[in-house]
Design a protein that fits this description.
Blueprint lengths: L1 E5 L21 H7 L5 E2 L11 E6 L8 H15 L3 E6 L21 H18 L2 E7 L1 H4 L4 H8 L5 H6 L1 H9 L6 H4 L1 H16 L1 E6 L4 H15 L4 E4 L29 H9 L6 H8 L4 H13 L5 H15 L1 H14 L9 H7 L6 E4 L9 H7 L6 H9 L3 E3 L2 E2 L17 E6 L3 E7 L1
Parallel strand pairs: 3-4, 3-6, 4-5, 6-7, 8-12
Antiparallel strand pairs: 1-5, 2-7, 9-10, 9-11, 11-12
Length: 442
């Protein structure tokens, strides 16, 4: 178990001015309902238990969480803001089994070593972005010493196969997959049900939530708690977030997964995912993902609609989500890099903004002053690694594709002057539309 006490970062996720209940506290479930985040629930909002723990599970099938997990993460954050004790359950045991929910075929099983490595990586991710206190649990802790006989006798005895077969996650596989479903994946709902009971018994956890495909697993846990303790658990599911064309949100424009790990998806590309949200999907994305108040979202949309081509709303969305995951500095870096990449007038940017855009980038090189001033621009472009050879630089220029500070280089004999540096210290070469190379004087 990891109990993380994380300092609040500057991003404003305070619930103080949001939906309030009669006691004056943030009414998180009414807020979730107003944002369209309650798909299925086992009770009315007014009957939901208070002052208890709430959990959501993440199976460590990869070394990083991704955009598809982000709705669960931000919902857990909202519940934490609303006074509930948040628990993130990372399935070190169930990750070795595979959840059949939402799948049409068997998962490829990971080794114990792979799962353990993924658990550690995901735990570190939660440490980096979750605001406030969160408890991280790994269910391998209560399964690793359990015998098969104990599991079948004490847990399996309370489950009925006919009820398990009726669950959508199982029924759909039996009806559509010629291979059916293995006993391994069939047993997954028993494990998840026991997880809920274990957290209920040991951590006062009375609420579980999950994605839209988790309803059967959640209700199995509630039924198990009732049989074991005669108490009532509560569960709800989040809707599947789709775009205006009905496609599941979470893929980049190139079709790849958008990860919450900068080694897998750069902070810039993460920011770009949000900045590229279409206008038709903008209100929904602001509602379900951000911590803006609903009234503030209305104001954002109103201002956005005045000049949609400026993408004001997408800018607010992208900056908000990037700051939540990566912090303010990385967000400013992504904003600056976006301005550079999309041909902004570089004279409107400060030297600090441009340097920030290329911070830690291999495209930033230092060149001695004597190899810049008085030299041909094409030679400086080569020194800045704009191309691998002078002939390639000349080819770019002759084709109209060589730019210095976003201004086209017209002549092969142009000489680099001090006035060509931005702020007296930086130059930016561009080849084509988006291939940038930054240099500064040594």
């Amino acid at each position: 178990m990891h109990l993380l006490r994380l300092g609040q970062r500057k991003l404003n996720i305070s619930p103080a001015r949001r939906t309030l209940c009669s006691s004056g506290q943030y009414d998180v479930f009414t807020d979730l309902k107003n944002r369209g985040l309650l798909q299925d629930t086992t009770a009315e909002v007014s009957q939901i238990p208070r002052n208890c723990a709430v959990y959501v599970g993440f199976d460590p099938t990869a070394s990083s969480l991704h955009i598809g997990n982000l709705l669960q993460i931000t919902t857990l954050q909202r519940l934490s803001n609303g006074g509930y004790k948040p628990i993130a359950l990372i399935g070190g045991a169930t990750g070795q089994i595979g959840d059949p929910s939402g799948r049409s075929s068997e998962r490829n099983l990971l080794s114990g070593e792979e799962v353990d490595s993924n658990v550690k990586a995901i735990t570190q991710q939660f440490k980096s972005f979750f605001k406030g206190e969160i408890e991280i649990q790994n269910n391998i802790g209560w399964y690793k010493d359990m015998f098969a006989i104990e599991f079948l006798r004490d847990i399996g005895k309370l489950f009925r196969v006919n009820t398990m077969l009726a669950k959508d996650s199982v029924k759909s596989r039996i009806e559509t997959d010629h291979q059916g479903i293995s006993f391994t994946e069939f047993s997954y709902q028993i494990l998840q049900a026991y997880d809920f009971y274990h957290l209920y018994k040991n951590h006062n956890c009375k609420i579980q939530f999950g994605g839209s495909d988790q309803w059967g697993n959640i209700t199995a846990g509630i039924e198990f708690i009732k049989k074991k303790s005669q108490d009532q658990g509560f569960g709800f599911t989040l809707p599947l977030v789709t775009d205006s064309e009905g496609k599941k949100i979470g893929k980049s424009s190139a079709g790849g997964q958008v990860w919450l790990d900068p080694a897998k998806t750069s902070v810039y590309d993460f920011y770009q995912f949000w900045i590229n949200i279409p206008d038709t999907d903008l209100p929904k994305m602001l509602k379900v993902f951000t911590f803006f108040e609903l009234s503030e979202i209305e104001s954002i949309i109103e201002k956005h609609n005045e000049q949609p081509e400026k993408r004001y709303g997408q800018g607010k969305l992208a900056a908000h989500m990037t700051e939540y995951i990566y912090g303010k500095e990385k967000t400013l870096q992504a904003v600056a890099a976006t301005k550079v990449a999309f041909g902004a007038d570089l004279s409107t940017l400060t030297v600090e903004e441009i340097e920030l855009a290329f911070k830690d980038s291999e495209r930033l090189v230092c060149i001695p002053e004597e190899k810049v001033f008085g030299q041909k621009v094409v030679d400086v472009a080569l020194a800045a690694r704009t191309a691998v050879s002078k002939s390639q630089v000349l080819k770019l220029l002759r084709g109209g594709g060589l730019y210095l500070n976003n201004k086209k280089v017209e002549s092969e004999d142009a000489i680099f002057e001090k006035s060509d540096l931005l702020g007296g210290k930086i130059g930016v070469f561009r080849s084509g539309k988006k291939n940038y190379h930054l240099f500064k004087l040594e």
